[in-house]
Amino acid sequence: MPSLDPRSPLVLDTVELGRRPGSMRRVQRTVGAPTDLGTEVIGVREGSDLGLELRLEAVMEGVLVSGTARVTAAGECVRCLDDVERELEVDLQELFAYPGKSPEGDAEDLRELEGDLLDLEGVLRDAVVLALPFQPVCSDECPGLCSECGARLADDPGHQHDSVDPRWAALQTLVAEGDQKES
């Protein structure tokens, strides 16, 4: 008995393919994104639109799923903490082997059908997370934030602080005392 829920939007039924190599079916659907699809910095919001255009093709070993997924990733710029949104289109391609028909050697990396059902969530997660930028920025020219006060440098390009190296602070007091004696 399959443990997958056939009503889940990312679970596809392959019974129409009939295990006849060469039979093919196209699937187009928009579903809600699953939870935790991303990293701490950027990811796809749970429930946001996830567009799938897939081709399910029966082959000797199982069902080959190929196609694309379209998502909108949202997060923060790692330099200035502004909101960042990226439209992503990722390619998907995975072989789901028929139960008990896994080719030798790749058995641990291969996904299997459960009865006539296949679950796309793992394939989708692998493809989307790998396509996300490791350090998203709002623009390549983003100067970030001031390391001393946190001001956004893009808003004030001439922003600076007069800071004295603490090793020279004693000399600065001597200069200030000398200026007072001269006055």
Describe this structure as you would to a colleague.
The chain is an alpha+beta fold. The protein has helices spanning 121-131, 169-182; strands at 11-13, 24-32, 37-38, 42-44, 49-58, 62-76, 83-97, 111-112, 117-119. The protein has a domain at 11-131. The strands form 2 sheets. Strands 2, 3, 4, 5, 6, 7 and 8 form a 7-stranded mixed beta sheet that branches. Strands 1-9 form a two-stranded antiparallel ribbon.
H and E order: EEEEEEEEEHH
Low-confidence sequence ranges = none
Query: What would the principal axes of the Cα set say about the shape?
Result: rod-shaped
Describe the main β-sheet briefly.
7 strands, mixed
Number of helices: 2
Mean pLDDT value: 87
Helix content: 10-25%
Structural class: alpha+beta
Q: Give the amount of beta strand, in percent.
A: 25-35%
Radius of gyration: 28 Å
| Count of β-strands | 9
Q: Could you give the distance between the termini?
A: 95 Å
Layout of helices and strands, plus pairs?
Elements: E1 11-13, E2 24-32, E3 37-38, E4 42-44, E5 49-58, E6 62-76, E7 83-97, E8 111-112, E9 117-119, H1 121-131, H2 169-182
Summed up:
The chain has a domain at 11-131. It is 14% helix and 34% strand. The chain has helices at 121-131, 169-182; strands at 11-13, 24-32, 37-38, 42-44, 49-58, 62-76, 83-97, 111-112, 117-119.
Essential attributes:
183 residues; alpha+beta; seven-stranded mixed beta sheet; rod-shaped; 2 helices; single chain
